[in-house]
Amino acid sequence: MSVEDSTAAPDEPQGLHPTRSLDDTVHQRVRLGILTIAREADRVEFGFLKKQLALTDGNLSRHLKVLEDSDLITVEKGYAGRRPRTWIALTREGAQALNAELRALRALVIRLETPRPAPGPATT
C-alpha cells in the first residue's frame, strides 16, 4: 500500500488517519474505562470503579480529576448511612466525547479489516 492510497472509512475525513480523531483525555486506558463504566449506569460509586479497574485510591482520584476538569463527568460526594461515598456520573459532554472516541475506534477497525487490493508491480 502506498501512502497515496485512499483507505478512509465512510465517516472519516478524506486523507486523515482514524487515530487523528482519538482524544488523548478520553483514550487513556483508565479514563476510557471510567467513562464506559459510567455510561452503563446513572452514576457509579468510587469503590466500584476502583475495584473494576484495579486502581489505588490516589490513581483513580487523579484520573477522575482530569475527567471532571474536562467536564466529562460530575463527582458527587455524600453519605450512604454514616459512610462517606463518592459517585461519578457521565455528563452530556462526556457521552458525546465517548461516542466520538468509539466512532474513531470503529473507523480504525474498519480500515484494518477492509480487504486491500494486492500490490501491483513496483514502478521506478
Strand content: 5-15%
Which class of secondary structure composition applies to the elements? alpha+beta
Question: What is the end-to-end distance?
Answer: 15 Å
Overall body shape: elongated
Strand adjacency order, main sheet: 1-3-2
Question: What's the helix-strand series?
Answer: HHEHHEEH
The total count of helices amounts to: 5
User: What composes the largest sheet?
Assistant: 3 strands, antiparallel
Report helical residue fraction: 40-55%
Radius of gyration: 20 Å
Q: For the residues shown, what is the average pLDDT?
A: 88
Q: Could you tell me the number of beta strands?
A: 3
Low-confidence stretches: 1-9
Commentary on this structure:
It is a single chain. The protein has a three-stranded antiparallel beta sheet with strand order 1-3-2. The model is unreliable at 1-9 (pLDDT under 50). The chain is an alpha+beta fold and 124 residues long. It has helices spanning 24-27, 29-39, 46-53, 57-69, 92-113; strands spanning 44-45, 73-80, 83-90. The chain is elongated and about 75 Å long. The two termini are 15 Å apart. It has five helices and three strands; from the N terminus they run H-H-E-H-H-E-E-H.
